[in-house]
Amino acid sequence: xxxxxxxxxxxxxxxxxxxxxxxxxxxxxxxxxxxxxxxxxxxxxxxxxxxxxxxxxxxxxxxxxxxxxxxxxxxxxxxxxxxxxxxxxxxxx
Length: 93
Hints:
- With 93 residues, the protein is mostly helical.
- Helices cover 52% and strands 0% of the residues.
């Protein structure tokens, strides 16, 4: 009978491949979610935007785009870096 233990951070090839696969799966799910939200909302997704979304592997960026997908009126607005910045309402003269 074999006994296998798991020690986080061990860095074996199998463990590394598993973690990379897990991250890729999460990214694929995020991509599908972004495209689904836009589709359900009736937002047209040009091929250039679709390609940018589907080739992204940065989970933080994908999370940001998923949040933005809930409110944008154009798919291109997902990439607007100023979309999350609060407007400066302090009018100093």
